[in-house]
Amino acid sequence: MKKASIFMIFLCLIIVLAVTPGCKTAEKDAPQKDASDVSTGEDTSPLRVLIDVEYGSNVYRFRESLENYDKENVRGEWKGVSLKDKLEDMGGPSPIEIEIAPVRENERDVFLTSLRTEMMSGGGPDVFVCRGGTGYHLMEKGNELDYNAGYIESQPLFKYPQQAMKRNMFLPLDSYIEKAQFMEWDKLTPVVMDAGKTEKGQFLLPMTYTVPAVAFRRSDVEHTPSKDMKWEDMLLKGPRISLAAVGGIDYIGNALAPFADYEHDKLAISEEEMVRYLNAKLDDLKKYKEESGGVPWTLFPLQVLSEFDLSKYDEGFDKDDPITLVPLYSRNGGYMATVTSFAGINVNTKKPDEAFWVVDYLLGEECQRSGLYAYMTLAQAVPTLEGLMTDGKAVSDGIDEASGKPKAKMPDDFYEQFCAVRDNISFADFETPLDREFQKLYLDLREPSNKSRESMIHDAYMRMSMELAES
Length: 471
Prior knowledge:
Blueprint: H1 2-29, E1 47-52, H2 62-67, E2 70-74, E3 77-81, H3 83-89, E4 96-100, H4 105-120, E5 127-131, E6 135-138, E7 140-141, E8 144-145, E9 151-154, H5 161-166, H6 174-177, H7 190-193, E10 197-198, E11 201-202, E12 204-210, E13 213-217, H8 231-234, H9 239-246, E14 260-261, E15 266-267, H10 271-291, E16 297-299, E17 323-327, E18 336-345, H11 352-362, H12 365-368, H13 371-377, E19 382-383, H14 412-422, E20 427-430, H15 433-445, H16 453-470
Parallel strand pairs: 1-4, 1-5, 18-20
Antiparallel strand pairs: 2-3, 5-18, 6-9, 7-8, 10-11, 12-18, 12-19, 13-16, 13-17, 14-15
Helix pairs in contact: 9-10, 15-16
């Protein structure tokens, strides 16, 4: 019995020794699986396109607009075609999911926080269509706009696109642009498009921009846009050009451009420079108005309007008066265009070709003339494609005809002045919350206060410096 037990133990030991090396050999010789060898099947997830432009628009009812992005005639009636269906029907990516950021304060904050977390984790939308800077939207009562309740002030997804580009948050686009089928790269105003470029290439595509300016009757003021004139030079050109130097409200920081040093996350101007500039605006506006002899004038940043009639802003204008536009020059010479909205592709995208197809279409003529752009341009900015806002190439004002045909265009004289300003832009940069901070400071300084002017400017300067340092 004892011998049988020993024999059985011995036999089991032989079997174990025989099998074990074979298992090791099989494990060693088996091909190792690589992520690229694993077949996951076709990716059927939708291409995500985030559109966040409504919160700063002068046009409302964004969702309805995107559902009626285009029109088709069906048995004599015009029927709406959604942007999503339009893109898919044209042979674009399918399926597409269009996401719209909320405008209501609490909803928007929660949405943007969740979105930023998702992006930091390697996800997020494939395509971004974003307005820059602080935006405003009429408050709502229930589901209706409340025209008596004031505005919601909201922040953008990308507060500082300049820094987001340097942090490699967007896909480089140079190789894709070379194969574009919709956008006409050579007709997109080059100096404006350069705002979306770093030393590593093109990362963002500016869609709309503006230049702060003042309009006069040509019979009162003659001016040729210059790439050399400085803001202080404007004060030496007589009271009417001086009036253009101090009369603005929107984008008044452009006079001190470059305003921020994004390489070092700090302001590029001194507090003393800010004090001198604001003192001139606050102390000399009344004087220049009086010395100008009461000539009609109005603030007129480059923008799309339903009707270009300056008599609505100053009754001293006649509707058909030839005009002169005087841009706001900067402290170092020339003047700056402010990019107010842009498109880009998430560096995390798994579908770069499909994402670029959409971005390409967004920068093409058809889209730049569409109702989508009206949310970014009406009374705010102009599209980047040159040749628009003319006969045969009108753009949407958000209130198009039943057929969807765009109708906003500039009279010949306006267009001539617009082109003169556009063609002499010296540099461009993105709108940021600093633009609003500077404007709020100026407006606050115009109101009675217990604080001294210098202390208010100091507080604002420190606040803006801190915001940049923490961005």
